[in-house]
What does this fold into?
Amino acid sequence: MSEFTGKTVIVTGAGSGIGRGSALAFGREGANVVVADINEENAARVAAEIGAGALAFKVDVGVEEQCRALVAATVKKFGRLDVLFNNAGIGGRRAKIGDMPTKEWLKVININLNSLFYCTKAAIPELKKAGGGAIINTASVDGLIGMSTISHYVSAKHAVIGLTKSCALEYAADNIRCLAICPGYVDTPMVSDGFAKAETDLITMMTPVGRPADPAEIANLVLFLASDKASFMTGSFHQVDGGILAGFRMHAD
Ligand SMILES: NC(=O)c1ccc[n+]([C@@H]2O[C@H](COP(=O)([O-])OP(=O)(O)OC[C@H]3O[C@@H](n4cnc5c(N)ncnc54)[C@H](O)[C@@H]3O)[C@@H](O)[C@H]2O)c1
It folds into this structure.
């Protein structure tokens, strides 16, 4: 029996990639997992992989009422909420700022930033009722450095870290911890669909460990941060990036 047995976890963007890997990992630890995704089919598939104790829920996290409905359905089904993993995100169309359609900018900010505010706002009363809990937010290494052609994404991910810090300050007294993760290159459809092979080859070369992460390697950090082992951790962000932000490698061997 693990500490997550009987606990209830919402994972947004759980139909694919990092969310899927984390949902499966929480499921293996005995948690009730709400597999929340805009892609209903993928959510249902992941919930079926987890088996009993999983609920697939279709949600567009960019719509506040739907985030409220997600939390309400969670509590209706499982009676409590202990962990919110705000993970859903999109890469968005790539363009330099001067060529970025305003609609695209607003869409990426909405899905990658506003959604975390909506879900967190809806979850706080339920986390309080449970006596506390954890909110884990997926930022990115792009929340710490810039990257050209994705200014909307970079801006949203920097803001996710700010939101995480404010949330931690506001709810520490309620025993609610709030933390951000900053993954580097993870092998998921978001990257394979959004970047050309030459670009992913370049990112791999820039990553000291020489490969992308498997989503399960990100899930390891998520579960640790959500667990009691991280009881003194809140308001902080955590790189899980294969060393890509460590600096410049100047040797060839
Ligand atoms: N893959 C990487 O290299 C990488 C690196 C750093 C951070 N991230 C972040 O990790 C998170 C997960 O990305 P991923 O790489 O697993 O991508 P992914 O595309 O595999 O998964 C994202 C999931 O989010 C869902 N989603 C998209 N818009 C949604 C919406 N409006 N409402 C609900 N669900 C929605 C998608 O359907 C998909 O299932 C994102 O926040 C992303 O920015 C990814």
Observations:
- The mean pLDDT is 97.
- Strands lie at 8-12, 32-37, 54-58, 83-86, 133-138, 176-183, 237-240.
